[in-house]
Amino acid sequence: MLEREFPEGLVIERAPAPGLIFPTENMEGSTKDEIWECLMGNEVGMIGVRGIGGVGKTTIMQHINNDLVREGRFQKVIWVVVSYPLIVSELQTKIVDAMGKTLQEKEEMRRAAKLMEIMGKESFVLILDDVWEEFSLKEVGIPEATVQNGSKLVITSRSAKVCNNLRCKIVEVRPLSPNESLNLFLDKVGRDVLKVEGLEEILNSVVEECGGLPLSIVVIAGSMRGEYDISEWRTTLDELQQCVKSMEGTEDKIFMRLRWIYDRLRSPKIQQCFLYCSLFREDYEFSRKRLIEAWIDEGLINESGSRQKAYDKGHHILNRLERNYLLEKTVKYQVWFKMHDVVRDMAIKSIGPEVRYMVKAGMKLTKVPNEHDWATDLNKVSLMANYISEIPVGFNPKCPLLSTLILADNPNLSEIPSSFFEGMVRLKVLELYDTGIETLPDSISNLVNLSALRLRCCETLKYLPSLAKLRALKKLDLWMAGIEVVPQGMEMLESLEYLDFYCQNLKEIPTGILPSLSSLQYLVVHPSISITKGINLEEVARLSKLESLECGIEGIQDFNYLVKKSKDFESLIAYDLRLSTSKQYLTGLGFRV
User: Fold this and answer.
1) CB 504 within 8 A of CB 528
2) What tens digit of pLDDT does each residue of 344-360 get?
3) What is the rounded distance in angstroms from the CA atom of residue 419 to the CA atom of residue 473?
4) Reported pTM
5) Sheet harboring 124-129: ordered strands across?
6) ∠ CA 400-402-407 to the nearest 5 degrees?
7) Which of 141, 179, 334, 472 has its CA 20 to 30 A from that of 119?
8) d(CA 215, CA 253)
9) pLDDT tens readout for residues 205-237
C-alpha cells in the first residue's frame, strides 16, 4: 500500500530540536532539582536563579536547558546571554535569532510588538543568563510567562532586586557542601591524586580554601592537574591561605583565588596575553585566529620571523589559558573562546601600575570619553562595541604613551578628525573593525610607529591617506573594506608581513608594488583579482618569505601555471585558490603543501 501511494518511497523528516544542546560536564549541588520542579509545575511562571559570581548559576541552567530540549515538553527552549549593559534592540535580536526567526522592523516598539507576536505562537522556556539590570518585559516584547500560556521565564542574576522587579520566584544558588566540593575538585584534578601517600588531608584543606564556589574549585583544580609532588600541594595550600587571609567579603576572596592562578602562570608573556583579553567587552566571543593575530600585533608573540611558528606559539599560550580555565570555549563554536565575567573582572583589576588600560567596551557610549579621561600615561584603550557616532572636530587627547587603540564595532562612526591622532605619537595598533568609517584622516600618515592597521569590514571606507611614512607597519588588514584603489605609498612598506586585500571593489594591484614588500608572509586578495588579471604571479613568486597565499584563478591554465611555479615559493605552507568568473566565485580548490 505504501509503495502504491508513495512510489518514490516515504521520507519522514525529524522535527527540528526545540533548542541548543550545550556541552556539559558532571555537576555537583542540589539546586537543579528545585529549579526543575518549578519548571515542571503549574504554580510558577517566572524563576530568578540568584547567587554570587562564580557560584555556578550558568552551569546549572545549561544542564537544565539540555534536559528541557531532550524532554520536549516545550516547543522552544531559548537561551540568551544578556550581560551588562542591557541593550533592548540587541536582546530582541538575540531572542529571535535563537528562535530561528528575524525582525525586519527598525523602531523599538514595533520590534517589541512583533517579538510578542512571534513568541506568543509557541510554548517556550526563555532563559536569560547574566542579567544585571532591571528591565520591562513589555518593552522588549517578551510575553509574561503564566500558567495560562504554558511558558516559563528563567533569569540568572547576582541581584535579588532584579529578580524581584520581574516578580520571579527566587531560587538561591548556594556554595557546595564539603563533599560536593571534593567530588567536583577530584573530577577536575584527576582521582589519581588520591593514590599519593599523605596527600588526603592537604587535599581536603585545599578544597576547603575554595569556599565551595565551583569557579574557584574548577580553576584551582585545573592548575594542579598532573601534580603528584606533595611538597607542591603544601606550597599551594600555604599560598591560598595567605592570599585570602586578610580578605573579608566572599567576592574579594574569589578575586584573590583567581589572582593566585594568574600569578601561577609565572610567564610575564602569557600573563600579558591573558590581560589583553580584558580589552574585549564582557561575554565577547573571539576566534583562535583573531586572538592569536592580536597577540602577534601587540608584539607578545615574535617567533623568529615565521608566522607559522608564531601561530604555534599562540596556540600553546591559548591552550595553557584554557587548561587553567582562564578562558573557556563557547557553546556554538568550540574553537571560539570567551572570558567568564568574574575572571574578566580579575584581569582588569590585575593590570599592573606599569601598564595602564582604559576599558569602556560595550558601555553604550555615544561619544568618546572626555579629554580629561585620556590620561597621559595610558597604554591601551578599548572603546569597542559602542554607539559612538562622532569624534568632535579639534578633539586632541594627549596620550604620548598610547600603543593600542580599539574602536571596533562602532557602526555609526563615519569620520575621525585629523586632530584625534596628533597626540598619539607612539601608537602601534589601531583597530577600526566594523565601523562606518568613510575616510581616514591625513594625520594617520604621521603615525610612524604604527605596526598594525586593522580595517576589516569597513565596507564604507573609500579613502586611505598615503602610507609612505609607515615604515614600521607589519599588518594591513582591509578584508571587505570598500576601497577601490591601492593606497599611495604601499611600495614603501618594506616591513609589511600581513596584507589582506580581500576588497571586492579593488580591481588590481599595480605592477611594482608586491616586489617591494620583501617581508610579506601572508597575502590575501579578492578572487576577482586573479593571477592573470590584476596580480602578477611573477611578482608573487619573488616574495621569498610568503607562507600563505589566497587569490583567484581564471581556469585550469592558471592553476597549471601556478603548480609549475610552486618551486619558486620556498616558504609557502598553504594556499587557497578560488575559481573566478565575471559573476561568481567558486571556492573549493584548497591545497596545503
Assistant:
1) yes
2) 999 999 987 778 999 99
3) 21
4) 0.86
5) 76-81, 124-129, 152-157, 46-50, 169-172
6) 130
7) 334
8) 12
9) 999 999 999 999 999 999 999 999 999 999 999
